[in-house]
Protein 1
Amino acid sequence: MVSDDKLYRFHVANIRAVEIALDNTARSARKAISEESNSATESFVRLYALLLGVWAENRLKKLLFENRGFSPAERSRIAAREAQHDQWTTVVELAFRKHYQVPNAELSDTTLPFSSYARYVGLMELLEKDLRPIIEVRNKLAHGQWIYPLNNDGTDVEQNKYQLLNNENLLSLQYKKSLVSSLSDIVHDLVVSLPTFERDFDQNYRKISNTHNNLRTRSYEAYVRLLVRKKQDGIRKRRAR
């Protein structure tokens, strides 16, 4: 049997390797955008979305083996949840129960301090709205459904996933990576250190709010124009030498 410490190091190494893959994919996508190659851009965007879901899963695996985190029994309870999104919510629930000593009762504004319960609800909403779509799109892509994500029976296109996939672009996915990173940092603090979680929650949540704002307001078309212009300026400069 491999020790918990060694498994933790394995998960850290996996995260770093996937981060390198994400960076390389983003670089290739920017090149394809600058060259106005729509087919290549689409391929790299799909690959980035797949890797983002893989990266999120690795962050979860690392969380399970954090020092001062979960016992083997608690890890087994989390792993028993089949869906990755449910594993994330179980991580958050168990961490709140441990830190605030609420072993069995329903978590509410009476069993938790009011501000802590508000944070619990906020985290669950973020997991639902920001993380679940990334996980579900990744699952479709991992099964080769790069253009038409199918329903679980494989009998028809799943329209909401089809729309999600086709609404993504490199800029939106990079913002979503930032969202998952900030969300993972919050959950990490919750699992490892309650004082750190309470101290840094507002700062980390503000990062998430700023990223949400960027997702709503930043123009992908302007981003494309910038990359194309930079490419064309570089070509002109080389020709002028």
Protein 2
Amino acid sequence: MISGVRAERGLNVKYPMSYNRLKNALVNRAVKLIERTYASDQIYEYLEKDDDIPIDLYLEENVSETELNRIRSEIDGALWFISLLSRVDGLVLMNKHLVVRGFGVEIKSSTPPDRVYICSTQIPNNSALKEVDYNHFGTRHRSMMRYCWNYSGTVGFVVSQDGDVRAMIKHGEALLMWENIRLQKYTFIRRIIRRKPAVKLKRRKAAK
């Protein structure tokens, strides 16, 4: 899976599409959470004051909760559909808003990264980096590494058959990769993309 792509550069999108149901459902969920929380807070204030509670507040709270349950089912359905797209040979392409732009996508980038590091912390620092051999990884990982290396700002996810998930981005003069991540902890990647590289890597000495 690739996220954060502004255009289909360096990609061969076999099956283009525009599927925005996941994005819309997440936005609607946020709105309903705010509405339910506001109604619940208002009810609590009335209870503290020992005042009569307007029936409209109870109605708003219950309607919001019902809508949240419906939206949860919608999100589950959207995720199920997107997961089915991954069964087609190739990757699933999404933009930064989680709109699916295509599937069965072939990566055409051929330039490998200069250096690859595994990062053990959310925000990279020199002590948390371990250099690894690019050729140590399989075809899918290497192709994703090449793409993220050639197109800064792109976030790549590779899901192994055993369920392990790796995320990777280009950061400064190296490609950084996180192993065994939890997909719901995605916000730190956005923070890294927006900030200037804080890791200073020593340049290799030229071969004699």
